Amino acid sequence: KKELSKEFLKYTIISSVAEIELFRPKQYNSFNQVLRKELVDTLKELEKMDGIRVVILRGSGPGFTAGADLNEPFPPPISQHLEDEYKPIFEAIANSRLLIIAAVHGSAAGIGAALAMVCDFLIMAESSRISIIFSNIGLVPDGGATWFLYQALGYKKALQLIVEGGYLSANDCKKYGIANKVVKDDRLASDARKWANALSERAPLANDAAKRLLRRVSEKTYEEAFISEALEQDKMSISEDFHNARIAFLKKSKPKFSGK
Q1: What is the pLDDT of residue 1?
Q2: Which residues of 148-166 are buried (b: 16+ CB within 10 A; e: fewer)?
Q3: Contact 124, 173 (CB under 8 A)
Q4: Residue 24 and residue 8: Cα distance in Å, rounded?
């Protein structure tokens, strides 16, 4: 077990699973400049660690995160602020070889809602919610939230949610495919870790390839998707993992994946 604390963030590594905890509980884990940098730096650090396969991202205190810290001024233009300060975090998650699970309790609000949705998997406590409250302060969603909401809800429901400044309950999120799992509040941490451990035993090369394929498939035609899969399969089929798993399959034993 390895533990490391930064100013507003902690992370723990046990075997092949890392757990990042946003740690500004009194500010509802809202993002100031320091936390933004710490999170992207931590994601990059974990990316380079060969033994890590799965990451859990969670919040401390009453909830996941309230999004941007409104006590901190937004330097104009805000588009440049979002591109410089937030986009690197979202890209680090979307482009990572790692599987990243958001474990949400309380509320994921503002750009924190987009952060929860950009993760590969989402597990939510029963009482938690995704809060799309930008319009309450005269803003539109950011962090790619409109893209995620449109994909899940369609135009009319997504627009209603946005203009009304509403929220999606954990069960709503599961219903619309935004969340993978909804669990009892007191089981969130343990169930997230149990799930992460199970995922970490799966084939890491194939996990990475599947993530890469699905992240880009909406931009492709069927024929392009077919070719993309075939090209990934080229790499998978000559890996040690496939060779060893094929032997294990024939012997009816459980494969062990090395990521090679």
Answers
A1: 83
A2: bbeebbeeeebeebbeeeb
A3: yes
A4: 6
Residue type, 120: D
In the chain, what is the straight-line distance between the N-terminal and C-terminal CA atoms, in Å?
24
Tokens standing for 12?
């723990």
Give per-residue pLDDT as tens, 125-163: 999 999 999 999 999 999 999 999 999 999 999 999 999
Among all chains, which residue has been given the structure tokens 């993002």? 31
Strand duo 129-131 + 167-169: pairing: antiparallel
Helix (H, G, I), strand (E, B) or coil at 232: helix
Q: In sequence order, what are the residues at sequence separation of 6 or more whose Cβ sits closer than 8 angstroms to the Cβ of residue 125?
A: 104, 105, 106, 170, 182, 183, 184, 185, 188
SS3 category, 207: helix
Average pLDDT over residues 171-187: 98
**pLDDT-based confidence at 69, cuts 50/70/90?**
very high
